[in-house]
Amino acid sequence: MAEPLLDIRGLQTHFHTFGGLVKAVDGVSFDVKAGEIVGLVGESGGGKSVIGFSIVGLIDPPGKIVGGEIRFDGRDIAKLDERAMRRVRGREIAMVFQDPMTSLNPVYTVGRQMDEVLRLHTDLDKAARRARCIRMLEDVGISEADKRLDAYPHQFSGGMRQRVVIAIALLAGSRLIIADEPTTALDVTVQSQILKLMRRQVEDTGAAMILVTHDLAVVSEMADRVVVLYCGRVIERGLTDEIIANPAHPYTRGLLDSIPRIADRQHRLRQIPGTVPDIRSIGLGCSFRARCSRAQSLCAERSPDLAHVRGSLDAACHFPLEEAAR
Amino acid sequence: MTQPVLEVRNLVKAFSIGGGFFDRLQIGGGKLIAPEKVLNAVNGVSLSIAPGEVLALVGESGCGKSTVAKTVARIHAPTSGEIHIDGTEVSSLDQKELRPFRRKLQMIFQDPYASLNPRQRIKDIVIEPMRAQSDRKMSGRELDAEAIKLLGRVGLNAEQANRYPHQFSGGQRQRIGIARALSVRPKVIIADEPVSALDVSIQAQILNLMMDLRDEFGLSYLFVSHDLSVVHHIADRIAVMYLGFMVETASRDQLFANPRHPYTQALLSAAPSVDKSLRKPEVEIAGEVPSALNLPSGCCFRTRCPLAFSRCAVERPALRPQPGGGSVACHLHDPAPEAFTS
Question: In CATH, what number does A6-92+174-315 get?
Answer without folding.
Answer: 3.40.50.300
